[in-house]
Amino acid sequence: MQDMKYVELIFENCESMIIPIDRVAKLEFGSLRESFQKDKYTTDYVSLDITYNKDEIFFFYHIREEPLGFGSSNNIEDRPNILGRILSYYDICVVNILNGNEEKIQSVYTPWDENDEYNNRYMKTKVEKGLLKITIKEGEVFEHQY
C-alpha cells in the first residue's frame, strides 16, 4: 500500500500505539475478509516485526504515565519506551494502516480467542536480534505468563 506511513495498534482497553513504517520490518496478514464497513477487514493471521533499540522494550505504567492515545503522544517516535507495552499485555485487537497525516486507510481486526475478553490468547511475542516479533494466529492458543 503506497500511502502507508504508519501502523497503529489498537489494544483491548482502547489504548493505541503508532509505529512509523520505517520501524516495521515485516507486516503480513492471512487472507483478508471484508467486514461490514468500507476498508475494514478480518483475518485469521497477523505477523508483525518491529525494530527496537535496547531501552525501548522496557515499559512500566507509572502513576503519572498517561494511557496511550489519551492526551500525550502515542507515537513511538515521541515516546519510544511505550513499545515495551506489547510485551506486558497480550491484547492487540486491531491493526490500522495510516497515511502520512496519521489518518486511517485500512483496519484489520485480529483473531481473538473468545474464552478471554481481556487477553488475546492467540497472540505471541518474541524478542530476537533487534526485533520485537508479534504473531496472532487463530487456533493457536498460548498460555501467557504475567
Per DSSP E runs of 2 or more residues, the count of β-strands stands at 10
Uncertain ranges? none
Task: Give the proportion of residues in helices.
Answer: under 10%
Q: From N to C, what is the helix and strand string?
A: EEEEEEHEEEE
List keywords for this structure.
146 residues; mainly beta; 6-stranded mixed sheet; 4-stranded antiparallel sheet; 1 helix; 38% strand; globular
Can you offer a commentary on this structure?
With 146 residues, this protein is mainly beta. The chain has one domain. It is 3% helix and 38% strand. A six-stranded mixed β-sheet has the order 2-1-7-8-5-4, with no helix packed on it. Strand 9 and strand 10 form a beta hairpin. The N and C termini lie far apart (36 Å).
